[in-house]
Task: structure prediction
Amino acid sequence: MKKVVIFPSNKVLDSSRAWRYFSKALTLSPSELSLIKEKYFLPAKRGILLKKEFIDKLSKNLDISKKELLNIFEVGGKMLKVNKKLINFAKKLKKERYEVIIIGTSTDLLASLKVEKKTYGEFSKSFMSYQLKALKSEPRFYKKLFKLIKKNENDVVFYENESQTLKALK
Result:
């Protein structure tokens, strides 16, 4: 039976620079950014608020044009730092006939950005929270994931060390 190795997207892509850019471009204080994340990004990560509605609501709230907001996301998306060592490791595993999957807590907008889309393409499959309608830190995310990949826990290795995720896996 083909074994599966699963990588979390936050280990493969570092978004800290992109978030700093987003916050600076929109002149958001840390508390304002936190509120924006809670009000718009969290429902988008859960697949409740999809790209068009997300952009409509966020641009209205921030009093910025949709085009300008999308441009900020595109520029910020180019600031994602790709962990090339993990990408190369994933490629090596694929050559050794492992199924290599990337999972994460993302929105359909963020997942469609050039760097994220290209990075996810390096893996056999990708499963994001907006697709599974659950956050990666929630047990139901993994129930849905195992059902979709048609594997049991014994056939899967997680490249993960975050306590929230490990709790959700139990």
Remarks:
- The mean pLDDT is 90.
